[in-house]
Amino acid sequence: MDLNAIYLVSDSIGETADVVIRSALFQFETENYQLKKYSYVQTTEEIDEICAKAADDDHAMIFYTFVKKEMADYMKDRIEKAGLIGVDIYSPILTGLGQLFQLPAKEKPGINRQLNADYFNRVEAIEFSVKYDDGRDPRGIEKADIILIGVSRTSKTPLSIYLANKNVKVANIPLFPESKPPKEIFSIAPERIIGLVNSPKKLNEVRKERLKTLGLPPSASYAGMERILEELEYADQIMKQIGCEIIDVSNKAIEETADHILHYMDVMNINRKQL
Amino acid sequence: MDLNAIYLVSDSIGETADVVIRSALFQFETENYQLKKYSYVQTTEEIDEICAKAADDDHAMIFYTFVKKEMADYMKDRIEKAGLIGVDIYSPILTGLGQLFQLPAKEKPGINRQLNADYFNRVEAIEFSVKYDDGRDPRGIEKADIILIGVSRTSKTPLSIYLANKNVKVANIPLFPESKPPKEIFSIAPERIIGLVNSPKKLNEVRKERLKTLGLPPSASYAGMERILEELEYADQIMKQIGCEIIDVSNKAIEETADHILHYMDVMNINRKQL
């Protein structure tokens, strides 16, 4: 059977279409498709070419995000004339927002990647969170919006990066019995600290996996139950001493834990974008 | 004037709706709105409550992403009955893909955050790229899919993280005349190295900004033209010696440069997800 061709067409990079389609694709039990991405499509000639290509494919479908109404309309017309199927992702949303605001859309492609203050804040938050990953520099604790603490393999790093993408400056500090955590975590406001815990079973699994990746034997004490329980007990003491929020990350995707933290920050009135 | 209320309703976190709406909002010259996010909406009673709240607002609009057709239909019906405006983001896409594949959708909320192999690969790529940021450990060079080199303030860190989110393992290495780069960058395949350059003017601006953030005087030599030209000259020599791809990042958003690199990787047949 021929591969289904999914065309993603955009007048900009096409990142939004990409996110939406990839997310929707999870709802189908098939890998029998090929994504064909067309970025920076700015002329009707290019639309003609893309539609001609899609018409040549046996099974094709076109998803498009144009911020210019004229281009979206042209695309719709060409798709119909070629007897193809297409979905206009952006127009219903832009029309809706236009109705709500009683304002015309700017129709400027790529405007969401303009180098504005929000963009720079996000880049800064990412650089911050990479810099203060894994307790590299305790000075990060006082400057961060949120400090994550936890034993090894409680998702501290990917969580920090995910939150940084949401404009949160994060410092993360590993906890292990052999080394005292930096004293700063006992002096700052406990609301800014989040303790991450994971189930012993899960830690055992992910640590064994980790050892495998590192080319080490899975029997190393790092992945053993005794060591894991000792570390968790130690971390529990520290977290209780601080009196911080504790989140169990076992069986939670990064996005879910991050969502929990963002909600918590809202409730506790912890600002982002402050340094 | 009352704030326009934009409701984002999802049977999962609502991340997809969030991305699409935030991107579309850039097309309007207004900040007169408030996002109200409702996550994990799983029952018709919750839909009733949300619509009742929206009907109480003076200016409200509902965007929703439900993977269950029944819930999307119920939402549509309630919105119409309440005289509200709403946009169903997901259904046209899911219907389209269903037509293309000739398959029913799974209708399982949150399935795109399931802890599958792709998810773990992405988390691993992020951890990798944080670990091998800023030349911290030259062993990363041989293990990385792509190595970014460049002088300070050529977006090495945010680019690494963005690419890691796309499953690319990145190591980045800063270049400056006082320190020889790790010898590994001259021995690996040059196709895996990307040299990042920035215009002297831009570097001058962003470095002055950087100094301000660090509480240092903007007159420090780091941000001075003489120093910048010296560094760029040095970097140019190294890049020519390697014979690597060079990208000018001035006035490019991270997404654009990353897009360029992903294309380049495709063309050069550089695999991701390999270690």
UniProtKB/TrEMBL annotation, chains A, B:
Q: What is its EC number?
A: 2.7.11.32, 2.7.4.27
Which residues take part in binding ADP? G150, V151, S152, R153, T154, S155, K156, T157
Catalytic function, reaction form: N(tele)-phospho-L-histidyl/L-threonyl-[pyruvate, phosphate dikinase] + ADP = N(tele)-phospho-L-histidyl/O-phospho-L-threonyl-[pyruvate, phosphate dikinase] + AMP + H(+); N(tele)-phospho-L-histidyl/O-phospho-L-threonyl-[pyruvate, phosphate dikinase] + phosphate + H(+) = N(tele)-phospho-L-histidyl/L-threonyl-[pyruvate, phosphate dikinase] + diphosphate
Q: Which residues cross the membrane?
A: none
Write down the Pfam families for this protein, in alphabetical order: Kinase-PPPase (PF03618)
Q: Which InterPro entries match?
A: Kinase-pyrophosphorylase, PPDK_reg
Keywords, sorted A to Z:
Kinase, Nucleotide-binding, Serine/threonine-protein kinase, Transferase
Q: Name one GO molecular function term.
A: phosphotransferase activity, phosphate group as acceptor
What is the top EC class of this enzyme, as a single word? transferase
Main role? Bifunctional serine/threonine kinase and phosphorylase involved in the regulation of the pyruvate, phosphate dikinase (PPDK) by catalyzing its phosphorylation/dephosphorylation.
What the entry lists under PANTHER family is as follows: PYRUVATE, PHOSPHATE DIKINASE REGULATORY PROTEIN 1, CHLOROPLASTIC (PTHR31756)
**Which family does the entry's similarity section mention?**
Belongs to the pyruvate, phosphate/water dikinase regulatory protein family. PDRP subfamily.
Q: What is this protein called?
A: Putative pyruvate, phosphate dikinase regulatory protein
